Amino acid sequence: MRRDVFQAIADPTRRAILSLIALQAMTPNALAEHFASSRQAVSKHIKILTECELVKQEQAGREIYYNLNPQKMQEVDKWLAPFRALWEDRFNQLDTVLQNLKNKNHD
């Protein structure tokens, strides 16, 4: 089953897994140590992340290491870019208003 990237990152546990493997490749057991849920539950999350290609797996001997797929994360970033530009513009406008108020109070 091919899953949607946004469906996958909607879950806080899956976002936490992505944050952990963004720093370094990790095995399912190493990932499971960071969560209160069972290793099987973490493995299910990893499976979903793998199905939507946010995570790549690499076999090293008996261990499987999971890595972040930055190309797939770029798709998420590309989708968010127009929204980021919108709120950055609004924050810049707010900065201008606040600076004008500050200047007005000093006059």
TrEMBL record:
This is Transcriptional regulator. InterPro entries: ArsR-like_HTH, HTH_ArsR_DNA-bd_dom, WH-like_DNA-bd_sf, WH_DNA-bd_sf. It comes from the Bacteria. It holds the Pfam family HTH_20. GO terms for molecular function: DNA-binding transcription factor activity. Residues 1-88 form the HTH arsR-type domain.
